[in-house]
Amino acid sequence: GPGGAPGNLVRRNLGVANGEDLKETLTNCTEPLKAIEQFQTENGVLLPSLQSALPFLDLHGTPRLEFHQSVFDELREKLLERVSAIALEGKVEERYKKLEDLLEKSFSLVKMPSIQPVVMCVMKHLPKVPEKKLKLVMADKDLYKACAVEVKRQIWQDNQALFGDEVSPLLKQYILEKENILFSNDISVLHNFFSPSPKTRRQGEVVQKLTQMIGKNVKLYDMVLQFLRTLFLRTRNVHYCTLRAELLMSLHDLEISEICNVDPCHKFTWCLDACIREKFVDNKRARELQGFLDGVKKGQEQVLGDLSMILCDPFAINTLALSTIRHLQDLVGQDTLPRESPDLLLLLRMLSLGQGAWDMIDSQVFKEPKLEAELITKFLPMLMSFVVDDHTFNVDQKLPSEEKGPVPYPSTIPEAFTKFLQENRIACEIGLYYILHITKQRNKNAFLRLLPALAETFSDLAFSDIFLHLLTGNLTLLGDEFALEEFCTSLFDGFFLTACSRKENVHRHVLRLLLHLHHKVAPAKLESLQKALEPTKQVG
């Protein structure tokens, strides 16, 4: 018959004769042909009307195997349809009782390739496969591979290590994809790391696969979050925070209320997701986000650890920082100080919570970091004064010049600015985004004035991949300046080359930039840059 199965076991369990039985019959009989005919009659398809039709097939030279195989395939299809139907009909207990009985009968044939799909289908439709069967599937590599994700979820939820083995390569792939975007050779202002919308990002392969593996299983969702927290702590890699938010929102898109309703961050993440989509936190959503933060109750502070991880996602930080720069410009126009703007203070509060994520999860002390008063009373007004300097300079340029000649652009920066960038994480983040902002405006004067402050920043933030990815993109707008010696010396000798030898990533970003703009750089300068950028013997 089709399939071939492990001999005696099947006969004992199912009362079906097999090759072993035929061998036994033929060994112990006097008339082999009669014995074969009898075996065929006893074990063939028992339909009276078929007996006369089979010789007709013989006349056409159709082997019995082919006939039996096609009947078998038909029956298997019917059975698979029936199993799927049983899983949906009648009372819950009854339908599962039928499926359990069917599994009990058929499981001994699970190794038979022809029957395996039926057994797998029965298990797939059982919300709780008997423990013993799960253990047998788990112990056999091929069976484990063949079973449906619905069955694997039941295995994974009690085997964290096995689930970890399945998830781990996906997380590696995710981080690699992010790094490939940051180092991609396409440099542009219009298409950068932050261009794809949240909805587009959630369609990515890794997020989709994880969503499918989790299904509606809260236990598996919690395990994935635990993996992400652990990896974030171990590596400080903020892309794990992005994945944390993307995964939750992917389940939100599918309306998996079983999980969304129990994740305390769901509504906060949903609201923040809308801000990220607009790349701006508007007043209505700001109130909503503030409501969530103010609503954290005594005894539930642990949720701050999760919220901080959601806010540490670079896409969230980018949105908060861009909104902060926009607010500061508005305040200049309104003659208002930062301390008088509740919206601005909320943005700083969220930036601070996001930037403090690693420390909070590491120390397990769940309280919001205090904002330093000087950030609000000294640093932000200083940034506003830079905005004013630009306005003043532009107006001066337009006035009829008197004998004393044109007013030069301010070239010095307050020492306090440099100090803030070195010592205060939030100030540094906002300062870097301000520099990105003036570069995007093609404001060469302001850029050269502030550039020296970037040589030393808080935990080298000015040499982080995300900042350099954005800066190189914005610098393409100042392409023509690369022909000028002074500009190149400030940018390369004063900034990039100070870190190239100790930071391989900076080296890569400079090469990306030059690949894009080398034809604009003065030949003599290009030659000295090529010498400076030649890899040393130690570089891989």
TrEMBL record:
InterPro entries: COBRA1. One of its GO terms (cellular component) is NELF complex. Coiled coil: none annotated. It comes from the Eukaryota. GO terms for biological process: negative regulation of transcription elongation by RNA polymerase II. Pfam families: COBRA1. This is NELFB factor. It comes from Indicator maculatus (spotted honeyguide).
